[in-house]
Amino acid sequence: MNFNVYLDDETGLALNRAAKQSGASRNALIRQALDEWLQRRSTPRWPSDFLEFTGAPDLPPFEVTRRELAPLADDPLA
């Protein structure tokens, strides 16, 4: 599929510089940028590093320290 994209002079020059530095074509850079933008706007997802994190092996689970907290005397949001 083909599209015409009109850029202001400053953006066009920056695209030319980025293409020259990367060795990729301007079209390839535009496709990559558009793909990344569309992925970010799709269904939000947690990063895989976060989802795969199982905790630090030398630290106790967070829930253990919560049990040691004293209950609140009054509800601060009431």
Task: Produce the secondary structure layout.
Elements: H1 9-22, H2 26-41, H3 48-51, H4 62-67
Tell me what the structure shows:
This protein is an all-alpha fold and 78 residues long. The chain has one domain. 51% of the residues lie in helices and 0% in strands. The protein is built from four helices and no strands. The chain is elongated. The N and C termini lie far apart (58 Å). The mean pLDDT is 89.
Distance between the termini: 58 Å
Number of strands: 0
Q: How would you classify the helix and strand content by structural class? A: mainly alpha
Number of domains: 1
Question: Spans with pLDDT under 50 lasting ≥5 residues?
Answer: none
Order of helices and strands: HHHH
Estimated share of beta-strand residues:
under 5%
Shape: elongated
Short description:
The protein has 78 residues and is mainly α. The protein is built from 4 helices and no strands.
